[in-house]
Amino acid sequence: MKDIFGKALLDYQSGNYSVDLITSTNISDEDVLPLPYLFRGFSEMPKLEQKALQLAEGRVLDVGCGSGSHALWLQDKGQNVKAIDNSEGAIIVAKQRGVSNVELKPLLEETESFDTILLLMNGTGIFQELSEVASYLKHLKSLLNPDGQILIDSSDISYMYEDDDGGMWLDLNQGYPGELDYFLSYKGEKEVTMKWLYLDFETLKTACLTVGLKCEKVMDGEHFDYLARIF
């Protein structure tokens, strides 16, 4: 990985903001991801994220922390929070912004235990493919303290496969419709193609049951998205 995401965050943090990140997938056109949005405060966050932060308790792990916005809010509330990301640039920025416990580390290498684990901004994306969900959930389960919880958000993107008449153009040979190829570019430089997974709630709930976890929907978002609590 070239860590284009990290480079963009570093530019913004250092006052060199001139252009935004560009994202696209194998089923969608290019879209702009504004860099200021990645530095948003609590009042600018979607209601799903706000609710997740309000439900976080005990020792918290913020997975895929980015610039550290979620961890900073929790820290300011007196929470004991650890933030991790696999982007070196993101980790540098999170430290510069004041996140006190932040580490460059993939989720599967985390070994400490927590009362709350946060996976936000389509937290299921980190699972990459449907076939990997169970192994990630088993690892997350191993990190939970007794009575611990995982707060995760995602979206049911089946609507993206609808045609103008309301019919579906799913190709069943392509596998689960939430498995996408994700493309990221910044200042003309393209990141290595990433696998990214969107999970509908019922599929997530079923996957949780297979590894001995319970899953409940906390709330629906404004556009086919939802926040779930796994315990």
Any overview of this molecule?
By secondary structure, the protein is α/β, with parallel strands linked by helices. The chain has helices spanning 4-13, 47-55, 69-76, 88-97, 133-143, 201-210, and strands at 21-25, 28-33, 59-63, 80-85, 102-104, 114-119, 144-155, 179-186, 189-190, 194-197, 215-220, 225-230. The strands form two sheets. The chain has a seven-stranded mixed β-sheet, sandwiched between helices. Strands 1, 2, 8, 9 and 10 form a five-stranded antiparallel β-sheet that branches. The protein is globular. The two termini are 33 Å apart. 33% of the residues are buried.
Task: Give a brief rundown of this model.
25% of the residues lie in helices and 30% in strands. The protein has 231 residues and is an alpha/beta fold.
